[in-house]
Automatic annotation (TrEMBL):
It comes from Paenisporosarcina quisquiliarum. Residues 348-481 form the GGDEF domain. InterPro entries: Biofilm_reg_signaling, EAL_dom, EAL_sf, GAF-like_dom_sf, GGDEF_dom, Nucleotide_cyclase, PAS, PAS-like_dom_sf. One of its GO terms (biological process) is regulation of DNA-templated transcription. Gene3D superfamilies: 3.30.450.40, 3.30.70.270, EAL domain (3.20.20.450), PAS domain (3.30.450.20). This is EAL domain-containing protein. NCBIfam families: GGDEF, sensory_box.
Length: 750
């Protein structure tokens, strides 16, 4: 079972146990605390472990400097023996009762990473609402057990606690490396403990390499582990000067000359025919006779190659993205700060590019994160192949990348690179046998005009990137100071949009849909409007993208579904029972859990018959065929009609038209707009209508604005139309007035 899936399963099982035990998630449990005498006894028993921890943890905290987090170490019973890290987090958890001497257990503390790691002897992450108790739901916690290699029993855990907005799976990877390093160091210390130096020379099973020399530096003993570690043979080195052993440089000579002792000196050497270096810690001291005459040296060195490589790996993980292997945000800050620090007093050029993939969330939502990750890896490879030595590429997280371009010669060079990057990203990708065209929006900030520090440059690149998105995406913008006002306006709208949902400042307008055979209004499309108390009606183009970024589309969609169905029920009660309501579903709504249950609930609460509701989806939402089929079948069984919106602009496949439960195709307004200007668009419209009719589907064309377009569509046997030719979107009351909705005839004529 994959690690993430197992992690979720362990958490779910833990929560069920906590519920069975009757733990109250709203109450902060009083700590189970042992006495100070018991704590000191445990710390004495774990002295060697804590000594190793106190070496590794400060090194680890240096590597993740800038990320506020806390390191917690427990023994095998879950009793906290050591806490270090961010003082603010430390103060908060101490106020909650968490301090050395406090014990973590699942049946008392609820679902937590320490208990899970101890109970299952696995690395565990518990993030946000995965915690059982509510007071921990704003934190992200990671825990790794470490073992005693002699008994294979668990010695304890090392854990990270940080704020939820700093949640990052990378932390668990780094923590696992720390745990492995602690285990290895404990093993090394156990191997060396209580062993007499001269006994080690004679002990075949020793895991410490030993060399004994006389007062002149000639090798008198070379133990078996020294042979194994160096690749040299004892018989070949005995009686020879130690100075001839390149493995120890001149350390033995230093002992002979100075009579000093040396400890934990790092030495590196390469065995004969070895591919990589061996790294050892060297200890050496002089030996004296009973009469205090200097008679030689005794030297030991132990292999720390694995620990050294673990430290390098830990440093790599701290500064590189796990998925793409690109340098990460921390590396970006260090790299750019290095350039800026060296720039003082010098005339240098630096451009910061911020790239954000357009509509990447749609691919993640429809094809799943695994396919989204595949796409990110390929994009990273393409960008790296293009850049080579031109600039340095970083992944900031999600679908954001940055490029630092230093020492460019002109602004035209910067613009040329931006144009090239856009073309590199636009080349087609193939996922699940579908061809994708992904685009990117780029914001650029230039040193020193747009900022002289990393935070300002990045902020201004971010502002320029959003301007590029606002201008239609798939392009770039170079920052200028006028953008700050637009950014402030956007931030203001973001904060007010959530309030608009709560304060009921939203409203629906309805655009009629006309049957070309009967010339009757057969349906209306519900279109969301924001009636801002100061700015008036805000068009969807100004706030729907914000809602998508903020994750509010599901809330907005539920609001539209509720209010639209209530209004349609009123019209049905007036005798207009053949009238249908069309509502657009966003990808987040279509793919969310319990969509069908939500639709059932709204129909039941409003009393609207299922045939009075039509849900519009886009072609891209059907890319996850298995899931889409299940959802569409359930909606079909419920009696809901399904329309494909913007048909012909997405990832068109005749296969889903044949296999899915679809009732209507909606021709995108771009084809309707251009069909009178050239044969290609006219042929596309004609083909869509022919295909739909061959599959017994109805066709509706949106964006009809002229009589010429109307007659053209009539000649092509289009079934229904929608557009300004008949009516712009109107409020419910204005629509009733225009079409006399109080008619008792049951039909409406435009």
């Amino acid at each position: 079972m994959p690690a993430q899936q197992l992690n979720r399963q362990l958490i779910e099982e833990s929560k069920l146990r906590c519920e069975k035990w009757g733990l109250d998630p709203t109450i902060i449990p009083d700590p189970i605390e042992i006495s100070q005498e018991q704590l000191h006894q445990i710390q004495r028993e774990n002295k060697e472990v804590l000594k190793v921890v106190e070496f590794f943890i400060p090194e680890f905290l240096k590597m993740v400097k800038g990320t506020p987090l806390l390191i917690v170490v427990t023994d095998h019973q879950g009793i906290i023996t050591y806490i270090e890290g961010d003082n603010t987090i430390k103060d908060v958890i101490q106020q909650l009762g968490f301090r050395p001497g406090v014990q973590f257990t699942e049946n008392y503390n609820g679902t937590n990473c320490i208990s899970l790691a101890l109970n299952h002897n696995l690395p565990v992450e518990v993030v946000g609402s995965q915690h059982y108790h509510n007071f921990l739901c704003q934190s992200a916690c990671y825990s790794v057990p470490f073992k005693d290699h002699r008994t294979n029993g668990t010695l304890g855990t090392v854990s990270i606690m940080t704020a939820l907005n700093f949640e990052d799976p990378l932390l668990l990877s780094l923590l696992s490396i720390v745990g492995t390093s602690i285990e290895r160091e404990i093993q090394l210390q156990e191997q060396n403990k209580d062993l007499n130096v001269l006994n080690q020379v004679l002990t075949e099973s020793s895991h410490t390499a030993m060399i004994l020399t006389d007062q002149y530096g000639r090798i008198m003993e070379f133990n078996p582990y020294a042979e194994k570690l160096t690749g040299l043979k004892r018989k070949d080195v005995l009686k020879k000067p130690a100075s001839e052993l390149a493995i120890l440089d001149d350390w033995i000579e230093k002992i002979i000359q100075t009579k000093e002792s040396f400890s934990d000196v790092e030495v590196k050497f390469q065995k004969p025919n070895a591919v990589k270096e061996t790294i050892c810690l060297f200890d050496g001291r002089p030996i004296y006779s009973v009469n205090q005459y200097f008679i030689g040296t005794v030297c030991s060195f132990r292999d720390i190659t694995e620990r050294y490589e673990n430290q390098l790996l830990m440093q790599h993980h701290a500064h590189h993205d796990d998925l793409t292997t690109l340098p990460n945000r921390r590396y970006f800050h260090n790299y750019v700060n290095g350039i800026l620090n060296s720039a003082k007093g010098k005339d240098i050029s630096l451009a910061v590019f911020l790239l954000d993939l357009d509509r990447f969330k749609l691919i993640n939502d429809t094809l799943g994160h695994a396919k989204g990750d595949t796409l990110l890896v390929e994009i990273a490879q393409r960008l790296n192949d293009y850049l080579l030595e031109k600039g340095k590429l970083f992944r900031m997280g999600g679908d954001e990348f940055t490029i630092a371009l230093a020492d460019f010669n002109s602004l035209e060079e910067v613009k040329k690179m931006a144009d090239d990057i856009i073309e590199v990203v636009r080349k087609p990708f193939f996922l699940q046998n579908l061809e994708f065209h992904v685009s990117t929006s780029i914001g650029i900030a230039l040193y020193p005009n747009d900022g002289t520090d990393i935070n300002t440059l990045f902020l201004h690149a971010d502002t320029a990137m959003y301007r590029a998105k606002d201008q239609g995406k798939n392009g770039y913008c170079i920052y200028n100071s006028d953008m700050n006002e637009e950014s402030l306006k956007k931030l203001t709208l973001e904060s007010e949009l959530e309030l608009a949902i709560k304060n009921n400042d939203l409203m629906l307008h309805y655009q009629p849909q006309i049957d070309l055979h009967t010339n009757q209004v057969v349906g209306v499309e519900a279109l969301l409007r924001w009636n801002h108390p100061e700015l008036g009606l805000i068009p969807p183009a100004d706030f729907i993208p914000l809602a998508e970024e903020m994750g509010l589309m599901v809330h907005l969609g539920e609001w539209v579904l509720n209010h639209g169905c209530r209004q349609m029920k009123k019209w049905h009660d007036q005798g207009l029972t053949t009238l249908k309501l069309s509502i657009n579903l966003s990808p987040q709504e279509f793919l969310k859990q319990r969509l069908v249950d939500k639709v059932k609930q709204v129909l039941q609460e409003t009393g609207l018959a299922p045939h009075g509701l039509e849900l519009e989806i886009t072609e891209s939402m059907t890319m996850d065929v298995v899931r889409s089929t299940s959802i569409l079948e359930e909606l079909h069984e419920l009696g809901i009609q399904i329309a494909i919106d913007d048909f012909g602009t997405g990832f068109s496949s005749l296969n889903y038209l044949k296999n899915f439960h679809i009732h209507r195709l909606k021709i995108d307004r771009s084809f309707v707009r251009d069909m009178m200007n050239g044969p290609k668009d006219a042929q596309i419209v004609s083909t869509i209508i022919s295909i739909a009719h061959a599959l017994n589907l109805k066709v509706i064309a949106e964006g009809v604005e002229t009589e010429e377009q109307l007659h053209f569509l009539e000649n092509l046997k289009c079934d229904e139309i929608q557009g300004y030719y008949y009516s712009k979107p109107l409020s419910a009351s204005d629509l009733e007035k225009k079409y006399e909705f109080n008619s008792s005839r049951g039909v409406i004529h435009p």
